[in-house]
Amino acid sequence: MDKTFGHRNRHYSTSRLVFWSTIFGALLMYIVFRSLRSSDSLDSSGSSSTPLHTTAKWGGKDWEQSVQISAHPRSGSHNSVLVTGAAGFVGSHVSAALKRRGDGVVGLDCFNNYYDPSLKRARQKLLAESGVFIIEGDINDSELLKKLFDLVTFTHVMHLAAQAGVRYAMKNPNSYVHSNIAGLVSIFEACKAANPQPAIIWASSSSVYGLNTKVPFSEKDRTDNPASLYAATKKAGEEIAHTYNHIYGLSITGLRFFTVYGPWGRPDMAYFFFTKDILKGKPITVYEGPAHASVARDFTFIDDIVKGCLGSLDSAEKSTGSGGKKTGPAQLRVFNLGNTSPVQVTRLVNILEGLLKVKAKKNVLPLPRNGDVLYTHANISYAMKEFGYKPTTNLEAGLKKFVKWYLDYYSVTS
Ligand SMILES: NC(=O)c1ccc[n+]([C@@H]2O[C@H](COP(=O)([O-])OP(=O)(O)OC[C@H]3O[C@@H](n4cnc5c(N)ncnc54)[C@H](O)[C@@H]3O)[C@@H](O)[C@H]2O)c1
Ligand SMILES: *[C@@H]1O[C@H](CO)[C@@H](O)[C@H](O)[C@H]1NC(C)=O
Ligand SMILES: *[C@@H]1O[C@H](CO)[C@@H](O)[C@H](O)[C@H]1NC(C)=O
């Protein structure tokens, strides 16, 4: 682990009274915290009734030093990048790749418990070992962002923090507004005010194509019939990006990821929990469309997505604003990052059965109309033309790497 963690205060002269009152105070805070938390079992960032995300876990001399060391590039020709959502699936891989090639990387993540936070902690630990420090804080905390941008001159912001997931929006709609709308605006505001302004690369989603039927999906297609609140917030983000580019001269690149999977992936995604359930002998639910139409996804392996993220970062032009004012037109782009090879979910299950050497118990149900779409297929020729994006991993090869990681990480002995 990073040496900056675990520093202890060395004032041992504290009297017993202070000691016990501190213990008592901490206990009291813990009880209050628990009772707030139990009224809202899944969310730790989005609910209006729990202002837990304002709890500051940042600041102080040690913290500032960790941030500055982490932000420091290997040489003057390398970048200094703020990666939000760095403890997340895509963010952790992108952070590691940037660091490996010599860029300075500072992470920012709130470690919410939308899915098992211990997985986020394990990713954080790995990154710390390679010298990436992750700030624990919320992207909608403008005070934190101001402090951070005062401390570091970022050349780029790779904004990957978001409330992901399609069906969870019915349980906790506010978390999408909090992170994907308010949080995005806070990030853009901080970038606008910075001098020089960084270039921004951020994650939109293939879900903006919504109920479109013309395939493959192309960046020029209309995206005005989203099928979920998640998709609607990503679409809103693209429009907000347009205004910040137009008014303030921010260079902004939106990336529409298509179903990303791989090692260190997200437990809320089908390939992940299918693996878990198949190994346990638990039945899995496979959805199908009207008239037994099969559901298909353009599954994209994480290493290909990382290449797409770095390619778009390297081809991003500088922002043109200064002192919060635009001095000339700035770059505004949106790219599909997919694999251009949709695979039916039944085929996904077959591949997993082969890799796990276990037959799945399948329940086939009609696809509910609560956010998921039938089919995704990316036209990636624009990213190919602009920065040579070319995915190289098919679903069999990618799932093999995922399963290997899964069995190792969860120490499954079969
Ligand atoms: N994985 C995919 O298939 C996929 C597809 C399309 C788009 N995306 C987008 O790509 C990005 C990365 O996705 P991922 O799969 O790595 O998801 P993830 O959930 O693993 O990562 C997101 C991270 O952001 C953090 N976060 C959420 N809200 C935050 C907030 N308010 N402040 C600070 N941190 C916050 C979370 O703790 C998490 O670690 C997201 O924007 C997501 O919407 C992902
Ligand atoms: C985001 O932050 C702003 C200003 O810092 C605050 O007014 C707003 O309530 C926050 N939004 C959400 C949804 O948390
Ligand atoms: C893919 O998109 C490009 C524009 O980026 C377009 O010229 C091409 O016709 C599209 N291909 C298909 C198969 O739709």
Automatic annotation (TrEMBL):
Q: Which organism is it from?
A: Lithospermum erythrorhizon
Which reaction does this chain catalyze?
UDP-alpha-D-glucuronate = UDP-alpha-D-galacturonate
**EC main group:** isomerase
Q: How does it sit in the membrane?
A: Multi-pass membrane protein
* Keyword field contains Cytoplasm: no
Listed A to Z, the keywords are: Isomerase, Membrane, NAD, Transmembrane, Transmembrane helix
Record's family? Belongs to the NAD(P)-dependent epimerase/dehydratase family.
Judging by the UniProt lineage, the source's domain of life is: Eukaryota
- What protein name applies here? UDP-glucuronate 4-epimerase
Cellular compartments annotated: Golgi apparatus, Golgi stack membrane
**In this protein, which residues make up the domain named NAD-dependent epimerase/dehydratase?**
81-316
